[in-house]
Amino acid sequence: xxxxxxxxxxxxxxxxxxxxxxxxxxxxxxxxxxxxxxxxxxxxxxxxxxxxxxxxxxxxxxxxxxxxxxxxxxxxxxxxxxxxxxxxxxxxxxxxxxxxxxxxxxxxxxxxxx
Length: 114
Fold this sequence. Notes:
Blueprint: E1 3-7, E2 10-12, E3 18-25, E4 34-39, E5 46-51, E6 57-58, E7 67-72, E8 77-82, E9 91-97, E10 108-112
Parallel strand pairs: 2-10
Antiparallel strand pairs: 1-3, 3-8, 4-5, 4-9, 5-6, 7-8, 9-10
């Protein structure tokens, strides 16, 4: 069974940066549609970054220009570089594939606060 492990979260001041990592055991992150999602308390999980085979990427307006999704095929790891963080980016961040999601990991908490 595929296990997803997200890491790299933490407490950061507004305007700061973090890089999240997503590792998978039991399958490859190198192909197909993968995404980063986030879920804030009391809110629905939302997609914040999408990458396809060939590394086409897409982002919602809320993070466009600030977040960058990428993957390292050799390390079977996906990343989310987050810059110019805002308090409204505070959430638990998850990775998964878009279609037929694997079991969700625990996520990694990102808190943006002064």
